[in-house]
């Protein structure tokens, strides 16, 4: 994963996704921005108690840092709803940018749309089918992993856009690593089929779980990329709910240029 300076801020990018012409993606950092502690500084969420004006200013800065486009946020609720944004919806003038629609995964084939997922320990899993030119962004916490929202999203890309998982590239954003993903009550929270990915008595490797679910859905193992960066271990770079309950959210975005 590459660290790229954008004016006063930094973003991370995946070399594997930079390889594709006309594809924009970024993982935001918490540095810079306008939010005050405990949300300092590039908090992008309106739902954590931060000053709304600061959040709006942070979102504007992210827009400027990532070549504009239409930034689509969503109401994430740790479930399995998938929102598809189509060319037909854009032509009909539907409210594409509404943040009130519950969804934990976003899919589109519309150039100029940027799909955003906000996290603070959960994974943002970005997908791109280079043949069909379709992108997706998935909010995947432990509940999403338990419900296999990743596999559901890949299936939706196949069923609605004719995508081939063999042509997809996936990038797993910074998130809670196996060093810090402790679940004392895992027997009541984590499905038994995922216990294979337990590390020690109570920790789980959700990076491996996501890779497994992506490959099971048909992606090639060599096309799945992850930074291996734990958000709780890097609080200077990322917001972490496990490290500080009252905190902000950083974002991963992906979209095709218009």
Explain briefly what this protein structure is.
Helix content is 22%, strand content 26%. With 258 residues, it is an alpha+beta fold. The radius of gyration is 17 Å and the shape is globular.
Describe this structure in words.
This protein has 258 residues and is of the alpha+beta class. The protein has a single domain (2-256), classed as 4-Layer Sandwich (CNF1/YfiH-like putative cysteine hydrolases), CATH 3.60.140.10. It has seven helices and 14 strands. It has helices spanning 15-18, 52-65, 87-91, 142-146, 149-161, 186-189, 206-216, and strands spanning 2-6, 9-13, 23-28, 70-72, 82-85, 105-108, 113-119, 123-129, 134-140, 168-172, 198-199, 203-204, 224-225, 250-256. The strands form three sheets. A six-stranded mixed β-sheet has the order 1-2-3-14-7-4. A six-stranded mixed β-sheet has the order 5-6-9-8-10-13. A two-stranded antiparallel sheet has the order 11-12. The longest helix has 14 residues, at 52-65. It is globular, with a radius of gyration of 17 Å. The two termini are 25 Å apart.
Uncertain runs are none
The topology string of helices and strands comes to: EEHEHEEHEEEEHHEHEEHEE
Question: Tally the helices: what do you get?
Answer: 7
Helix content: 10-25%
Q: What is the distance, rounded to the nearest whole angstrom, between the alpha carbons of the first and last residues?
A: 25 Å
Shape: globular
Strand content: 25-35%
Kindly provide the radius of gyration, computed on alpha-carbon positions and rounded to a whole number of angstroms.
17 Å
Number of beta strands: 14
Question: What is the CATH fold-level name?
Answer: CNF1/YfiH-like putative cysteine hydrolases
The CATH level-2 architecture is identified as: 4-Layer Sandwich
Name the CATH superfamily classification.
CNF1/YfiH-like putative cysteine hydrolases
- Looking at how many chains there are and whether they match, the oligomeric state comes to single chain
CATH class: Alpha Beta
């Amino acid at each position: 994963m590459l660290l790229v300076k954008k004016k006063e801020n930094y973003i991370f990018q995946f070399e594997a996704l930079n390889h594709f012409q006309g594809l924009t993606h970024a993982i935001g950092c918490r540095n810079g921005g306008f939010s005050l502690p405990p949300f300092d500084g590039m908090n992008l969420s309106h739902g954590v108690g931060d000053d709304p004006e600061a959040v709006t200013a942070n979102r504007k800065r992210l827009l400027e840092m990532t070549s504009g486009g239409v930034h689509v946020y969503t109401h994430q609720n740790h479930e399995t709803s998938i929102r598809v944004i189509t060319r037909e919806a854009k032509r009909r003038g539907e409210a594409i940018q509404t943040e009130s629609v519950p969804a934990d995964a976003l899919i589109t084939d519309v150039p100029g749309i940027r799909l955003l997922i906000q996290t603070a320990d959960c994974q943002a899993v970005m997908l791109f089918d280079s043949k069909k030119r379709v992108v997706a962004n998935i909010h995947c916490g432990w509940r999403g992993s338990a419900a296999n929202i990743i596999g559901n999203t890949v299936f939706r890309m196949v069923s609605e856009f004719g995508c081939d998982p063999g042509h997809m590239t996936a990038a797993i954003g910074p998130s809670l690593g196996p060093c810090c993903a402790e679940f004392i009550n895992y027997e009541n929270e984590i499905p038994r089929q995922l216990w294979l990915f337990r590390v020690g008595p109570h920790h789980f490797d959700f990076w491996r779980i996501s890779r497994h679910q992506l490959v099971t859905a048909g992606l090639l193992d060599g096309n799945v990329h992850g930074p291996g960066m734990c958000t709780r271990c890097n609080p200077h770079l990322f917001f972490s709910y496990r490290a500080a309950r009252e905190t902000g959210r950083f974002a991963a975005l992906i979209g095709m240029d218009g």
